[in-house]
Amino acid sequence: MGNFRYKLAQFMIGRNGFDTFCHALLKLSLFLIIADIIVPGRILQKIGLLTIFYSYFRAFSRNVVRRRAENYWYVETIDMPIKAYRGRDHKNYVYFKCPTCKQTLRAPKGRGKIRVTCSRCHSKFEKKV
Ligand SMILES: [Zn+2]
Description:
Blueprint: H1 2-12, H2 20-35, H3 43-60, H4 64-86, E1 93-97, E2 104-108, E3 113-117, E4 124-128
Antiparallel strand pairs: 1-2, 3-4
This protein binds zinc ion (ZN).
């Protein structure tokens, strides 16, 4: 077993390895393969298998620069917004963006029309919450 780990480590030298994007692809593939049960035509299963293949392709890829750029794109565009959304208190607050600087702001729910001053650019606007 120690020998196998050593060989695997040798094999992975110079390769991208399983990054955040790879792990997300594997999770997605699992979801697709399970969801395939309720969708006729085995299409989700095929997409799921392709997703697994793509994840392993990325992990074993020697084009580390390209794979890192893809991973960066994934983290910035999908992973971080999802984590930010999950970390918010949607029960008690309304979240919205400042129309001027796009900063995300929040206000307590159910106060009707309020006047908002952006914490970043200090522009003022009205918002119904
Ligand atoms: Zn602003």
